[in-house]
Amino acid sequence: MACGEFELISRYFGRELCSRHDVEEGIGDDCALVNVSEKKTLAISTDTLVEGVHFLRDIHPADLAYKALAVNLSDLAAIGADPAWLTLALTLPKVNNNWLKAFSDSLFDFLDYYQMQLIGGDITRGPLSMTLGIHGTVPRGLALKRSGACVGDWIYVTGTLGDSVAGLQLLRDKINIHDQVSRDALIRRHLRPIPRVPQGKSLRDLASSAIDLSDGLISDLGHILEASSCGAQLNLDALPISSVITKNFSAQQALRWALSSGEDYELCFTVPEMNRASLEIALGPHGVSYTCIGKVFPQENGLTFLKNHKPVKICLKGFDHFRMHEGCI
Amino acid sequence: MACGEFELISRYFGRELCSRHDVEEGIGDDCALVNVSEKKTLAISTDTLVEGVHFLRDIHPADLAYKALAVNLSDLAAIGADPAWLTLALTLPKVNNNWLKAFSDSLFDFLDYYQMQLIGGDITRGPLSMTLGIHGTVPRGLALKRSGACVGDWIYVTGTLGDSVAGLQLLRDKINIHDQVSRDALIRRHLRPIPRVPQGKSLRDLASSAIDLSDGLISDLGHILEASSCGAQLNLDALPISSVITKNFSAQQALRWALSSGEDYELCFTVPEMNRASLEIALGPHGVSYTCIGKVFPQENGLTFLKNHKPVKICLKGFDHFRMHEGCI
């Protein structure tokens, strides 16, 4: 039976028979939020990466360690948290010292950069996979949730969209481009996504909601809209596409990737009109572009699209490991 | 290359380039300890279970959910923590609704019993395995660490030793016993170990160190002795063996299991002489036996054994997934 990851989680693990008073958000946002003191909330997230599903078999261990941590940091970024501690459960088919050295060197470099500490580890034997548990802190009451968007808010994304999937397709030899600089840039965007941690922290006081783009814009914005009981209108002409993509691929391909491809790990967030003017002060210094791509509408409007100022119809689904992946169920 | 799990963790992941001021214990105890307020410490632990390595392929999903949680609760018990929140990363080869229903029903029953809440989940496609991240709280300064044992302290264990491995051998048809009641009791001890959470909490003010017996008494007591820079003398005649084992197996087999077999999930702890008298008040009401099995000695004495009041030599190694398991590297 084909069944999506989100549906499975909701159906079998969405129950909350015991609702602890210290749990502010359980399953359903980028991180769980638990209140540990009057001033502090912990943000906790966990992600598994399986060989052949989430990463290619021949990925360099340094890239793998980087990406595994980046993916988890991106969840903290989406909630506006300060990264703090990591747990790593690593399952290995065999002991390869060169692999382990390269993996752990890369992991610790990246942890140091974020002043994080690895606090727990488990190594087991089995097919190559890993589960990271990431913990961050956020001042109580300031976490960015998916559920805070309001009608009239503006929808933004950081960076550019679709580069990661182009890099993946290049690595898989599904597409080819001759310009080596472009090729390297796209592959780097796939292997070394930069989690928008400083942006998330800067948006704590300004954004009404946020999510990181792991599954694709339509899918991930859909989570904000569902949690906030809103609709939205996206301006397709405004979607930020990198010059590398524009130069090497058709506008239609670029649009398709921007809307539905996963793993860009940019932030998508909504901002009330009154906070728009403050965005430049908050985000400008980080040196990464941010772009207004649409507006929040009432729920009954659904998700609609404008192109050349006219409504257009689009049918695209998000990226879901139990539905979309190659060799899937 | 044959290489142990503990050695791998220490060699590749034991670095602490960034030592955060809020991390009281990083890698190396049953749980990591992080201080989140002036009064509260969080205990965090993560464990992975892989099909064919940590559980049998035909295990019932209800038993699997129970055991996965029990194993992690046992880590909290060893630190003296109150269970609070769980994250679950589940990797499944395919979607089987009956399996998922039985697994999740069992998990939530057990979570409710401990007033815990599942706060984060991830479901991915791949070979069956799961990683649980468990979080508990302990009053600041009262966590039971491996490093607190002192020369002269008495060594105790809860419950009885070796039942779990006998249950596993029965399930694997490696041994057989005809008495169905005994057989069921041992299998139950393997499939449904009871984490000693209330005992751990009661020991906060009394024990100088503690660990849970996941890898076998010699291996796990060894961790206490190493962390505390001590030696120990164990009285083999005092090791608590269940009547089921005594009735069905030789004394030698029972002794071997008690010393070196894993997954009993009892607590091993050390108690200063002055606190011994308080143990009955603290542990008695929980209805599980506890037994003094030896004494902490200076490190230079190493680990020695007494039988019939005379020194004996024993050579046994612990249970380590990269060294001991069948079909291992």
UniProtKB/TrEMBL annotation, chains A, B:
Mg(2+) 4 binds at residues 30, 45, 75. ATP binds at residues 121-122, 146, 214. It catalyses: thiamine phosphate + ATP = thiamine diphosphate + ADP. This is Thiamine-monophosphate kinase. Mg(2+) 3 binds at residues 30, 75, 212. The keyword Metal-binding applies. Pathway: Cofactor biosynthesis; thiamine diphosphate biosynthesis; thiamine diphosphate from thiamine phosphate: step 1/1. Residues 151-300 form the PurM-like C-terminal domain. It comes from Candidatus Erwinia haradaeae. Its EC number is 2.7.4.16. Mg(2+) 5 binds at residue 215. Belongs to the thiamine-monophosphate kinase family. InterPro entries: PurM-like_C_dom (IPR010918), PurM-like_C_sf (IPR036676), PurM-like_N (IPR016188), PurM-like_N_sf (IPR036921), ThiL-like (IPR006283). Residues 28-137 form the PurM-like N-terminal domain.
